[in-house]
């Protein structure tokens, strides 16, 4: 049976993904082929009441915003590599709270990041990590829209579709 997974993501567009996509293409080509680089905003289990989520998104008055990136780090017993997002100002958490209002009273704290090497389909080594640490990644990334994406399992993995986009605009 084919199952569809949906999530809300902040897709990294244009030249902002320079360095990020190069590392993904070179060191994790399978994940690179699945989906472009992104920051997951809400996971599938959080948006199962999709009509309510879409209603909240239709009321969103959010200006485009920037996030700061930290230095790369390994995770999942060192097999994966990610770039953590610095959300000290709470932009992402506040956005999540707005989107999930009326659905989840206290949304879990999201450890926002950009995955460079997913441990499910790659394995980082010490030497490889040292190479990745030398790549110049952007210090900040600007987002101007939220994308509702879907993946249909049971088919080719690279069946990610953008179902709907919500452009960020000032109040």
UniProtKB/TrEMBL annotation:
This is 2'-5' RNA ligase family protein. InterPro entries: Cyclic_Pdiesterase. One of its GO terms (molecular function) is ligase activity. It holds the Pfam family 2_5_RNA_ligase2. Keywords: Ligase. The lineage of its organism: Bacteria, Pseudomonadati, Bacteroidota, Cytophagia, Cytophagales. It comes from the Bacteria.
């Amino acid at each position: 049976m084919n199952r569809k997974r949906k999530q809300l993501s902040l897709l990294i567009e244009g030249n902002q993904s320079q360095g990020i996509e190069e590392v993904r293409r070179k060191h994790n080509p399978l994940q690179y082929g699945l989906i472009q680089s992104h920051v997951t905003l809400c996971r599938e289990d959080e948006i199962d009441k999709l009509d309510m989520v879409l209603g909240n998104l239709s009321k969103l008055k959010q200006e485009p915003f920037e996030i700061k990136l930290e230095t790369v780090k390994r995770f999942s017993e060192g097999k994966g590599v990610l770039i953590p997002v610095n959300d000290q100002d709470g932009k992402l958490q506040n956005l999540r709270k707005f989107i999930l209002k009326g659905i989840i009273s206290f949304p879990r704290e999201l450890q926002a990041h950009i995955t460079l090497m997913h441990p499910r389909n790659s394995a980082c080594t010490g030497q490889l990590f040292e190479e990745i640490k030398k790549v110049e990644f952007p210090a900040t990334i600007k987002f101007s829209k939220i994308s509702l994406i879907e993946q249909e399992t049971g088919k080719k993995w690279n069946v990610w579709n953008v179902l709907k986009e919500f452009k960020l605009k000032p109040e």
